[in-house]
Design goal:
Elements lengths: L20 H4 L3 H18 L4 H15 L3 H5 L16
Amino acid sequence: MAGSYRHVVDSNNDLIPNEKFPDMIENLGDAYETIEEMYHMIDILARGNKALIAEAYYKYLERVGGEHEMARRDGFWDKSTKTWDDVD
């Protein structure tokens, strides 16, 4: 696998700096493989519980100073918004 979790973490399993990312992930296909692997790892750790994944997202936003209140609003996780499934 050209793109994986191992490609975006250092020897301490910390996320590599943004500047090093292009050296490790050469193209969008590699980037997608990395994201896909991480998605499945998150899903496995949460045991498929999407509510736990949403809660982790809220805590991530709180940690980095993001708009965590916006993410808690009704409709934020609503599938009626346009997704890639809607793109031809």
